[in-house]
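Still learning folds. Look over my entry:

…
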Amino acid sequence: MDRSRGDSRRRLVPLRQREDELASRREEILALATELFSRNGVQATSMRDLAAAAGILPGSLYSHFESKEALADEILRTYLEDLRRRCETIDRSTAPAIERLRRLIRETLESADANPAGLSIFHRDLAYLATLPRFDYIFDLYLAVRRVWMRAIEDAVAQGRLHPDVDPTTYFRWMRDALTMTARWHEPGGEPDIETLIGMAERVFLRGVLIGDDPFPG
C-alpha cells in the first residue's frame, strides 16, 4: 500500500471541511448583511456593524469580504442579473407582444419576490452606489431590461393590441415603478400570494389599454 497517498487523502479531509466552513460562514455574513442593508441602507451600515452582527472581529470580516460595498455588490448583482436573464429569455421567444408583456409582469414580480434585499438596495442606495466605479454595471443591466420592455410595448402597439395613444416610455416607467415598488410592502411568501399579485397586476396594467379580445375573463 502507498502510505504517502493515504496520508494525502487524510490531509484533504480537513481541508475540504475548512472550505465548507468558510463557504458556510460567508453565506451567514451575506444573510446578515442583507438584513442590515435592507433595514439601514448600505451607506449607513459600517463594517463594524456587520462584524458585530456576525459576532466576529472586523479583521475576520475582511478575510471574507474586502468592504461593505463588496457585500452589497454581490446581493445587488444577483438580483439584477436574475432579472436581466428572465427578461432576455422572454425577448428571445416568438410569443405575441401582449403575451410577452404578461410574462414580463410575472417575471418582474417573481424576481422581486426571490431577491427582496437586492431590490431594496437598488431603491434605497442607488444614488450612492452609482458614484462608485465597481457599480458601473448597474446602468447597463437596467438598460438591458428596459430594451426588452420597450420592444414588447412598441410591438404590442404596432400589432394593434395596445391603444395607439399609449406612450411606450411613460407606460414602461409606470409599470416598472409600480411592479418593483411592490417589494416595499409585500413580504415573500406572504398574503396575497405571488400568483394573486401577478393576476391583479395583469388586470390593472393591461386591461385598460388593450384592443380586441379581453384575455382576462371575469
